[in-house]
Amino acid sequence: PLSSEDIRPLMSHLDNLQALADKVNNAVESFKQAASSGNASGPAKDALLKAVEELYELVRATKSPSMDVAPDLDKLFRSGNLLNYGAQELVAAAETGGDVDTKATRVLNGVKTVMKNATAVLEGQ
User: Fold this and answer.
1) Count of Cβ atoms closer than 10 Å to residue 17 Cβ
2) pLDDT tens string 22-47
């Protein structure tokens, strides 16, 4: 199992994680509005990518040498990766006239998954 040493960064980050999750969710909504008014590559895009990147960095900051013995932590990283990828897809969809709503929903669900996985890591202690 993980030691408290491994998990400390995540525990101290969990409040921040929730704040960043909210920030990503808000950024997705703003981006959807901007994209629907034909402004997919403006400040809303930058805000979205920055918010996702901050959340992703926080997830990555919890990485520990004993990760291989912590499937919950591994799940958390994978969900972070997927969220990052989903945000790129959302931007690409908006810029190419793709299905913004579906991609946005995927990002919002990705945020939920990250939070769920982060909580699972902590509860596994």
Assistant:
1) 22
2) 999 999 999 999 999 988 888 999 99
CB 45 within 8 A of CB 91: yes
Q: In whole angstroms, what is the distance from residue 45 CA to residue 114 CA?
A: 21
Q: How far apart are CA 40 and CA 58, in angstroms?
A: 26
Cβ–Cβ under 8 Å, residues 112 and 106: no
pTM equals 0.85
CA distance 69 to 94: 39
Residues 68-77 pLDDT 10s: 557 788 888 8
End-to-end CA distance of the chain: 8
